[in-house]
Design a protein that fits this description.
Elements: E1 24-29, E2 32-37, H1 38-48, E3 51-56, E4 63-67, H2 69-86, E5 92-97, H3 103-118, E6 122-128, H4 137-150, E7 155-164, E8 167-174, H5 184-199, H6 201-207, H7 220-238
Helix pairs in contact: 4-7, 5-6
Length: 239
């Protein structure tokens, strides 16, 4: 039987053996629970060469286990470590754009954003307007909306583009596991869009105008299309 002088337990978070001074205790083991006098529980612990450990002092009567105290502390430490590992630590990753981000840079940052969301992190994308570039505010909004649309399979928009000072922010949270697959609504929408594009293909080619690329974002048209899709998806989610 170990003595009560346990210097190796600096926190003294559990009472053991003769430190337990109540009249009776509830012993919990593999066979269930039973109430007995504390002296009897101490005698059983001595016979087994282990300790009487109080694990729930506020219960009536207090709950104890008959177990090797060092083994009990190891189990508690291991359980706490496992719980900590199960906790998902969500970080916020930043993606920065300029109002005239080119296509190559856009795709590069889109790839990183997908990786961040797949890892369970949030993404805070923003457009920084330097000096007189604030006149491109609408262009920056279009870019962020396109970005949100391209990440639809990986994350859900928490906050639509909002201007704060010289920065316009967009917040995207990762989808939960198993939700990255296309929803039925999205598949139906894509099928309808494909059918419409097929019917109007010749007309679109005849009437299409060349999109100017000199403004640094030939994706303006894509951005406006993304805005329409995002609004449609939001309306569907609210139904």
């Amino acid at each position: 039987m170990r003595t009560d002088n346990r210097k190796q337990n600096p926190k003294n978070q559990y009472r053991i053996n003769e430190q337990i001074r109540v009249r009776e205790v509830r012993i919990v083991d593999e066979d269930g629970a039973s109430v007995m006098p504390t002296k009897q529980a101490l005698d059983i612990a001595r016979q087994k060469g282990v300790d009487l450990v109080e694990i729930s002092p506020n219960a009536q009567p207090p709950v104890c286990r008959i177990i090797d105290y060092s083994k009990f502390l190891y189990q508690q430490k291991k359980r706490a470590k496992e719980m900590k590992q199960k906790q998902v630590k969500v970080e916020v990753k930043e993606i920065r754009f300029g109002p005239q981000t080119d296509e190559h840079d856009y795709n590069f940052k889109l790839k990183h954003a997908k990786e961040f969301l797949e890892e369970g992190n949030k993404v805070r994308a923003y457009v920084f307007f330097r000096g007189r570039a604030i006149v491109f505010k609408e262009q920056g909004e279009v870019l962020l909306l396109r970005f949100a649309n391209d990440l639809e399979e990986y994350g859900k928009v928490e906050q639509l583009p909002r201007l704060e000072g010289k920065k316009m922010f967009l917040f995207i949270a990762p989808k939960k596991a198993g939700q990255a697959k296309k929803s039925q609504q999205k598949m139906d929408r894509e099928r309808k869009e494909a059918e419409m594009n097929s019917r109007n293909n010749e007309k679109a080619e005849a009437n299409s105008a060349e999109i100017p690329e000199g403004d640094g974002l030939a994706a303006n048209a894509k951005g406006f299309e993304a805005l329409a899709k995002l609004r449609e998806a939001t309306e569907n989610d609210n139904v």
